Amino acid sequence: MLANPVAFKIGSVAIYWYGIIITLAILAATAFAVLELKRRKQNMDDILTLFLWIVPFGIIFARIAYVLFHPSDFFPWDSWSAVWNTINLRDGGISILGAIPGGALGAFCCYRTSKSCRKTPIGDTLDVVASAVLLGQGLGRWGNYVNQELYGELITDPKQQWFPWAVQIDAEGGQWFQATFFYEMVLNLIGFAFMAVLVRKSKRRWLCVFCYIAWYTACRAVMESIRVDAVSVGSVKIGVLGCALASVVSAIVAFLIWRGFIPTGTPKYLSPDPIEPDDLPQEAH
Q1: How many angstroms separate the CA atoms of 203 and 201, rounded?
Q2: Domain that holds residue 231
Q3: Count of other CB atoms within 10 angstroms of residue 66
Q4: Is 60 exceeded by the pLDDT of residue 278?
Protein backbone atom coordinates (compact mmCIF):
# COMPACT_ATOMS: atom_id res chain seq x y z
CA MET A 1 0.00 0.00 0.00
CA LEU A 2 1.05 3.61 -0.46
CA ALA A 3 2.81 4.83 2.65
CA ASN A 4 1.47 8.36 2.16
CA PRO A 5 -2.02 9.06 0.77
CA VAL A 6 -0.99 12.69 0.11
CA ALA A 7 0.30 13.20 -3.43
CA PHE A 8 1.55 16.76 -2.91
CA LYS A 9 0.71 20.03 -1.20
CA ILE A 10 -0.24 23.45 -2.49
CA GLY A 11 0.76 25.66 0.39
CA SER A 12 -0.93 24.13 3.41
CA VAL A 13 -3.57 22.32 1.35
CA ALA A 14 -2.92 18.60 0.88
CA ILE A 15 -3.89 17.02 -2.44
CA TYR A 16 -4.72 13.34 -1.93
CA TRP A 17 -4.11 10.48 -4.32
CA TYR A 18 -7.73 9.45 -3.78
CA GLY A 19 -9.03 12.70 -5.25
CA ILE A 20 -6.60 12.58 -8.16
CA ILE A 21 -7.57 9.01 -9.04
CA ILE A 22 -11.31 9.67 -8.82
CA THR A 23 -10.94 12.79 -10.97
CA LEU A 24 -8.95 10.91 -13.62
CA ALA A 25 -11.53 8.11 -13.59
CA ILE A 26 -14.35 10.62 -14.17
CA LEU A 27 -12.38 12.25 -17.00
CA ALA A 28 -11.73 8.87 -18.65
CA ALA A 29 -15.41 7.94 -18.50
CA THR A 30 -16.39 11.38 -19.80
CA ALA A 31 -13.91 11.15 -22.69
CA PHE A 32 -15.31 7.77 -23.77
CA ALA A 33 -18.89 9.05 -23.59
CA VAL A 34 -18.07 12.25 -25.50
CA LEU A 35 -16.35 10.32 -28.31
CA GLU A 36 -19.26 7.90 -28.63
CA LEU A 37 -21.87 10.65 -28.53
CA LYS A 38 -19.95 12.59 -31.18
CA ARG A 39 -19.93 9.45 -33.32
CA ARG A 40 -23.71 9.54 -32.98
CA LYS A 41 -23.57 13.13 -34.22
CA GLN A 42 -24.87 14.72 -31.04
CA ASN A 43 -24.14 18.39 -30.50
CA MET A 44 -20.97 19.02 -28.46
CA ASP A 45 -22.59 21.81 -26.46
CA ASP A 46 -25.42 19.47 -25.50
CA ILE A 47 -22.93 16.81 -24.42
CA LEU A 48 -21.01 19.20 -22.19
CA THR A 49 -24.24 20.58 -20.74
CA LEU A 50 -25.34 17.05 -19.92
CA PHE A 51 -22.13 16.22 -18.07
CA LEU A 52 -22.24 19.48 -16.15
CA TRP A 53 -25.48 18.12 -14.70
CA ILE A 54 -24.58 14.45 -14.35
CA VAL A 55 -21.17 14.71 -12.63
CA PRO A 56 -22.13 17.07 -9.74
CA PHE A 57 -25.41 15.22 -9.07
CA GLY A 58 -23.55 11.90 -9.11
CA ILE A 59 -20.92 13.09 -6.63
CA ILE A 60 -23.47 14.70 -4.28
CA PHE A 61 -25.69 11.63 -4.19
CA ALA A 62 -22.67 9.33 -3.82
CA ARG A 63 -21.71 11.23 -0.69
CA ILE A 64 -25.29 11.29 0.65
CA ALA A 65 -25.56 7.52 0.22
CA TYR A 66 -22.25 6.94 2.00
CA VAL A 67 -23.26 9.14 4.94
CA LEU A 68 -26.66 7.45 5.25
CA PHE A 69 -25.05 4.00 5.24
CA HIS A 70 -22.51 5.04 7.90
CA PRO A 71 -24.53 7.28 10.25
CA SER A 72 -22.39 6.56 13.32
CA ASP A 73 -19.39 8.17 11.57
CA PHE A 74 -21.16 11.49 11.00
CA PHE A 75 -23.99 11.98 13.48
CA PRO A 76 -24.99 13.62 15.74
CA TRP A 77 -24.08 17.08 14.46
CA ASP A 78 -22.92 18.40 17.81
CA SER A 79 -20.30 20.77 16.38
CA TRP A 80 -19.36 22.59 13.17
CA SER A 81 -16.50 20.14 12.68
CA ALA A 82 -19.03 17.29 12.61
CA VAL A 83 -21.02 19.11 9.94
CA TRP A 84 -17.86 19.76 7.92
CA ASN A 85 -16.85 16.12 8.23
CA THR A 86 -20.17 15.14 6.64
CA ILE A 87 -19.55 17.12 3.46
CA ASN A 88 -15.75 16.78 3.30
CA LEU A 89 -14.87 14.50 0.39
CA ARG A 90 -11.11 14.90 0.61
CA ASP A 91 -10.72 11.96 2.97
CA GLY A 92 -12.87 9.68 0.82
CA GLY A 93 -16.27 8.27 1.52
CA ILE A 94 -18.58 8.01 -1.49
CA SER A 95 -20.92 5.25 -2.61
CA ILE A 96 -21.34 4.36 -6.25
CA LEU A 97 -24.78 3.01 -5.39
CA GLY A 98 -25.75 6.61 -4.68
CA ALA A 99 -23.98 8.03 -7.72
CA ILE A 100 -26.10 5.98 -10.14
CA PRO A 101 -29.51 7.48 -9.24
CA GLY A 102 -27.83 10.86 -8.71
CA GLY A 103 -26.39 10.88 -12.22
CA ALA A 104 -29.72 9.74 -13.65
CA LEU A 105 -31.48 12.59 -11.85
CA GLY A 106 -28.91 15.02 -13.23
CA ALA A 107 -29.60 13.78 -16.76
CA PHE A 108 -33.35 14.14 -16.20
CA CYS A 109 -32.92 17.72 -14.97
CA CYS A 110 -30.74 18.51 -17.97
CA TYR A 111 -33.40 17.27 -20.37
CA ARG A 112 -36.10 19.19 -18.52
CA THR A 113 -34.19 22.47 -18.72
CA SER A 114 -32.50 22.24 -22.14
CA LYS A 115 -34.62 22.25 -25.31
CA SER A 116 -31.54 21.45 -27.36
CA CYS A 117 -30.77 18.26 -25.39
CA ARG A 118 -34.36 17.08 -25.87
CA LYS A 119 -33.76 16.76 -29.61
CA THR A 120 -32.15 13.40 -28.77
CA PRO A 121 -34.18 10.90 -26.70
CA ILE A 122 -32.79 10.57 -23.20
CA GLY A 123 -32.54 6.79 -23.55
CA ASP A 124 -30.06 7.20 -26.43
CA THR A 125 -27.80 9.32 -24.26
CA LEU A 126 -28.08 7.24 -21.10
CA ASP A 127 -27.17 4.08 -23.00
CA VAL A 128 -23.81 5.69 -23.76
CA VAL A 129 -23.38 7.17 -20.28
CA ALA A 130 -24.11 3.81 -18.63
CA SER A 131 -21.37 2.18 -20.69
CA ALA A 132 -18.89 4.91 -19.74
CA VAL A 133 -19.73 4.69 -16.04
CA LEU A 134 -18.33 1.16 -15.81
CA LEU A 135 -14.98 2.46 -17.05
CA GLY A 136 -14.98 5.21 -14.43
CA GLN A 137 -16.02 2.83 -11.67
CA GLY A 138 -13.29 0.36 -12.57
CA LEU A 139 -10.49 2.94 -12.63
CA GLY A 140 -11.85 4.70 -9.55
CA ARG A 141 -11.39 1.56 -7.43
CA TRP A 142 -7.68 2.36 -7.23
CA GLY A 143 -8.73 5.21 -4.98
CA ASN A 144 -9.84 2.55 -2.49
CA TYR A 145 -6.38 1.00 -2.76
CA VAL A 146 -4.60 4.15 -1.60
CA ASN A 147 -7.21 4.73 1.13
CA GLN A 148 -6.89 1.14 2.37
CA GLU A 149 -10.61 0.43 2.22
CA LEU A 150 -13.14 -1.94 0.63
CA TYR A 151 -11.25 -5.11 1.55
CA GLY A 152 -12.66 -8.53 2.32
CA GLU A 153 -12.04 -11.36 4.76
CA LEU A 154 -8.80 -11.95 6.64
CA ILE A 155 -6.29 -14.21 4.86
CA THR A 156 -4.05 -16.19 7.19
CA ASP A 157 -2.52 -18.62 4.68
CA PRO A 158 0.94 -17.23 3.74
CA LYS A 159 0.63 -18.81 0.29
CA GLN A 160 -2.30 -16.51 -0.46
CA GLN A 161 -0.74 -13.35 0.94
CA TRP A 162 0.21 -11.71 -2.33
CA PHE A 163 -1.15 -8.77 -4.30
CA PRO A 164 -3.55 -8.55 -6.07
CA TRP A 165 -5.20 -11.59 -4.54
CA ALA A 166 -4.75 -10.02 -1.10
CA VAL A 167 -3.70 -6.67 0.30
CA GLN A 168 -2.01 -5.54 3.51
CA ILE A 169 -3.99 -3.12 5.67
CA ASP A 170 -1.98 -0.89 8.01
CA ALA A 171 -4.97 -0.15 10.26
CA GLU A 172 -5.31 -3.90 10.85
CA GLY A 173 -1.73 -4.35 11.99
CA GLY A 174 -0.40 -5.08 8.53
CA GLN A 175 -2.50 -8.22 8.18
CA TRP A 176 -3.58 -9.49 4.77
CA PHE A 177 -7.17 -9.30 3.53
CA GLN A 178 -9.00 -10.13 0.31
CA ALA A 179 -8.43 -7.32 -2.21
CA THR A 180 -12.11 -6.93 -3.06
CA PHE A 181 -11.55 -3.49 -4.55
CA PHE A 182 -9.24 -5.13 -7.12
CA TYR A 183 -11.72 -7.92 -7.87
CA GLU A 184 -14.42 -5.34 -8.49
CA MET A 185 -12.12 -3.28 -10.70
CA VAL A 186 -11.47 -6.29 -12.93
CA LEU A 187 -15.17 -7.14 -13.13
CA ASN A 188 -16.03 -3.52 -13.97
CA LEU A 189 -13.48 -3.39 -16.78
CA ILE A 190 -14.72 -6.71 -18.17
CA GLY A 191 -18.23 -5.27 -18.10
CA PHE A 192 -17.01 -2.09 -19.80
CA ALA A 193 -15.39 -4.08 -22.62
CA PHE A 194 -18.74 -5.83 -23.21
CA MET A 195 -20.70 -2.59 -22.97
CA ALA A 196 -18.34 -0.75 -25.34
CA VAL A 197 -19.26 -3.30 -28.01
CA LEU A 198 -22.95 -3.48 -27.10
CA VAL A 199 -23.44 0.28 -27.23
CA ARG A 200 -22.31 0.26 -30.88
CA LYS A 201 -24.16 -2.89 -31.90
CA SER A 202 -27.46 -2.49 -30.06
CA LYS A 203 -30.51 -1.39 -32.01
CA ARG A 204 -32.69 -1.23 -28.91
CA ARG A 205 -32.94 1.96 -26.89
CA TRP A 206 -32.45 1.50 -23.09
CA LEU A 207 -30.86 -1.95 -23.54
CA CYS A 208 -27.41 -0.78 -22.43
CA VAL A 209 -28.81 0.96 -19.37
CA PHE A 210 -30.46 -2.17 -18.01
CA CYS A 211 -27.51 -4.39 -18.98
CA TYR A 212 -25.27 -2.04 -17.02
CA ILE A 213 -27.50 -2.13 -13.94
CA ALA A 214 -27.78 -5.93 -14.13
CA TRP A 215 -24.01 -6.44 -14.48
CA TYR A 216 -22.85 -3.92 -11.92
CA THR A 217 -25.33 -4.86 -9.20
CA ALA A 218 -24.55 -8.56 -9.68
CA CYS A 219 -20.83 -7.84 -9.23
CA ARG A 220 -21.54 -5.60 -6.28
CA ALA A 221 -23.72 -8.23 -4.61
CA VAL A 222 -20.81 -10.67 -4.71
CA MET A 223 -18.36 -8.07 -3.37
CA GLU A 224 -20.72 -7.00 -0.58
CA SER A 225 -21.02 -10.62 0.53
CA ILE A 226 -17.30 -10.80 1.37
CA ARG A 227 -16.54 -7.22 2.45
CA VAL A 228 -15.88 -6.82 6.17
CA ASP A 229 -17.40 -3.33 6.29
CA ALA A 230 -20.64 -4.18 4.46
CA VAL A 231 -23.70 -2.52 6.00
CA SER A 232 -25.88 -5.07 7.79
CA VAL A 233 -29.18 -5.12 9.61
CA GLY A 234 -28.96 -8.05 11.98
CA SER A 235 -27.45 -10.86 9.96
CA VAL A 236 -28.68 -9.49 6.61
CA LYS A 237 -26.22 -7.58 4.46
CA ILE A 238 -28.35 -4.87 2.88
CA GLY A 239 -26.05 -4.39 -0.10
CA VAL A 240 -26.18 -8.06 -1.03
CA LEU A 241 -29.96 -8.26 -0.85
CA GLY A 242 -30.63 -4.95 -2.62
CA CYS A 243 -28.06 -5.46 -5.37
CA ALA A 244 -29.12 -9.05 -6.05
CA LEU A 245 -32.75 -7.99 -6.41
CA ALA A 246 -31.84 -5.06 -8.67
CA SER A 247 -29.67 -7.34 -10.81
CA VAL A 248 -32.39 -9.93 -11.35
CA VAL A 249 -35.06 -7.34 -12.19
CA SER A 250 -32.74 -5.43 -14.54
CA ALA A 251 -31.61 -8.61 -16.29
CA ILE A 252 -35.24 -9.57 -16.93
CA VAL A 253 -36.05 -6.11 -18.30
CA ALA A 254 -32.92 -6.16 -20.50
CA PHE A 255 -33.93 -9.55 -21.91
CA LEU A 256 -37.45 -8.33 -22.66
CA ILE A 257 -36.08 -5.24 -24.42
CA TRP A 258 -33.60 -7.33 -26.40
CA ARG A 259 -36.31 -9.73 -27.54
CA GLY A 260 -38.65 -6.88 -28.43
CA PHE A 261 -41.30 -7.70 -25.84
CA ILE A 262 -40.79 -4.20 -24.42
CA PRO A 263 -40.72 -1.81 -27.39
CA THR A 264 -38.26 0.99 -26.70
CA GLY A 265 -37.53 2.16 -30.22
CA THR A 266 -34.35 2.42 -32.27
CA PRO A 267 -31.61 4.90 -31.35
CA LYS A 268 -32.08 8.13 -33.25
CA TYR A 269 -28.69 7.97 -34.97
CA LEU A 270 -29.73 4.68 -36.62
CA SER A 271 -33.02 6.11 -37.87
CA PRO A 272 -33.40 8.02 -41.14
CA ASP A 273 -33.17 11.76 -40.65
CA PRO A 274 -36.67 13.24 -40.46
CA ILE A 275 -37.71 15.47 -43.31
CA GLU A 276 -37.91 19.07 -42.23
CA PRO A 277 -40.59 21.34 -43.69
CA ASP A 278 -37.95 23.40 -45.53
CA ASP A 279 -36.78 20.23 -47.31
CA LEU A 280 -40.18 19.52 -48.86
CA PRO A 281 -40.59 20.36 -52.55
CA GLN A 282 -42.40 23.62 -53.08
CA GLU A 283 -45.70 23.58 -54.88
CA ALA A 284 -45.46 25.06 -58.37
CA HIS A 285 -47.58 28.08 -59.12
Answers
A1: 7
A2: 6-150+162-267
A3: 21
A4: no
- What whole-number distance in Å separates Cα of residue 165 and Cα of residue 179? 6
Cβ partners under 8 Å of residue 46, min gap 6: 114, 116, 117, 119, 120
53: in domain: yes
| Total domains in the fold of the chain | 1
DSSP label at 176?
Answer: E
Q: Computed from CA positions of residues 69, 132, 142, 5, in that sequence, does the dihedral angle turn out positive or negative?
A: negative
Does 69 fall in a domain?
Answer: yes
**C-beta of residue 1 within 8 angstroms of C-beta of residue 169:** yes
Give tens-digit pLDDT for 190-243: 999 999 999 999 999 999 999 999 999 999 999 989 887 777 777 778 888 999
Domain-embedded: residue 252: yes
117-123: average pLDDT: 89
- Cβ pair 238, 232 in contact under 8 A: yes
∠ Cα 2 191 134 (to 5°): 60
3-state secondary structure 153-212: CECCCHHHCCCCCEEEEHHHCCEEEECHHHHHHHHHHHHHHHHHHHHHHCCCCCHHHHHH
Task: Indicate the SS3 state at residue 42.
Answer: coil
pLDDT digits over 65-93, tens only? 888 887 878 888 888 887 888 888 766 67
